[in-house]
Amino acid sequence: MRKQTIHIYPRHDKSKPNSYIPYLDANNLYGWAMSQSLPTGGFKWKDTIDVTEVSDNSRKGYILEVDLEYPSELHDLHNDYPLAPETMVLGGVGKLVPNLQDKTKYVIHYRSLKQYLSLGMKLTKIHRVIEFDQRPWMKSYIDLNTNLRKKATNDFDKDNFKLMNNCVFGKTMENIRKHIDVQLVKTKERGMKLVKKPNFSSFKVFSSNLVAVHMKRTKLKFDKPVYVGQAILDLSKTLMYDFHYNTIK
């Protein structure tokens, strides 16, 4: 963990003891998560599973869809960092929001679920379970970049080796629905022909005789391992929650 102390001096009263707001940050958070056991294949549906009986480094892993109850007696204790954050639309913008509400059909990695149960949340229903094979298949690559970053002597190399880890995570979560084809058009006739197509998205004018026309793709191949990205995101949360509730609290 990295710590930074924030100093604030509005109308400082020297007769009172100093107070600080510490800023804490996990070094290499996603790198740590990518070094854990991650899905490799062998997906199949299961009726149910007791996640408390599954070790963190088991050869089998699980993603579940569950209902969770957030007991009211935990609200004061957990108010500063609630478990099981959800994506909510606030002010017209989607945000990841930690909250103290019960969860319905919440999709979660089994290690996160184990942690939430250990911290007091209640599992009320299991809707679906997917089992998969897992192993720490990214660990050697992540460790290589992490060690090279430690040895780096300039900011460029430090950022480069950090990004070499982070970009791998980014590709696992890539949303191919956002991919577009761009056609550069120099005539009005060609531009109008593209605009009339059902997959037309938008355009950008560069000059009086050059326009970029953005077209949505009519065929998509879903070949990104989003299940790996989901596991990385949930595992990264377990490290943060573990530090908060088992070290700070």
From TrEMBL:
GO biological process terms on file: DNA biosynthetic process
Q: Which domain of life is it from?
A: Eukaryota
Q: Which residues form a coiled coil?
A: none
The record ties this protein, via PANTHER family, to: PROTEIN CBG23764, RHO TERMINATION FACTOR N-TERMINAL DOMAIN-CONTAINING PROTEIN
Name of the protein: Zinc finger protein 771
Taxonomic lineage: Eukaryota, Metazoa, Ecdysozoa, Arthropoda, Crustacea
